[in-house]
Amino acid sequence: FREAPAFRNGPECGAADGDGRVDIAMTLDANYLRGTMAAVLSILQHTACPESVAFHFLTADADADDHGLAAALRASFPFLDLRVYRFDPSRVRDRISRSVRQELDQPLNYARVYLADTLPPDVRRVTYLDSDVIVVDDVRTLASVDLAGHVVAAPEYCHANFSNYFTDAFWSHPALNGTFHGRRPCYFNTGVMVMDVDKWRAGGYTRRVEEWMAVQKRRRIYHLGSLPPFLLVFAGHIRAVDHRWNQHGLGGDNVEGRCRGLHPGPISLLHWSGKGKPWLRLDA
Prior knowledge:
This protein is of the alpha/beta class. It is 28% helix and 17% strand. The protein is built from 11 helices and 10 strands. It starts with 21 loop residues before the first strand and ends with a helix.
């Protein structure tokens, strides 16, 4: 990787350590490092206030901060406000059930559930991004969305067939599918989320998500890794964000790898959420 130039704040920005700080959380993994590099660069290139963006990386690598992954990031982005946190894989290993893709079963894929438990108290709002995204707009627009009292904000897709995300064992069990009574659940992708960290902690949402992971271990109520337990807790209760902030489905679907249609209109964030990651296609 090459060293990136120093990205400096424009005149409209406040102090980098003031109220204008934007906190971005991502995971850090060797298999996705090239995606992470590209995502970070795209964020810095397209925001007017790059010095005001703080990055928080969760990694399962015990040595990542001193050498290796974090060292590679610091060498490429020497001016980056970068913090690394150790995520212990044993915290979720016994909670994970097999899904349709091996990559979705990795413990680090569940680190987003534990963001509020991991980030320091001064981080009160965080924007979580997967490592397979490219941002082509000012990330401050997404990060500053009005949560309107909600815990999570994300692009919402109410045209998707919501029932496909859960098994017949779920829909045929009244005590389970009753969780959606009184709300209009819609699909949202957890690879792009804005989270009120204080509300998450106060509401005990980590435990709520874990409870559904425990049900999954017993009854097999879904197929797709860490996404469905988020849907069970939050679907119908999130702050909807413009679809331009998650053009997901690039790289094909998660089962057969077939191409998916794009949503209409302008795009602020490209998300290779399918099997075909750009760096793997370059290798091929």
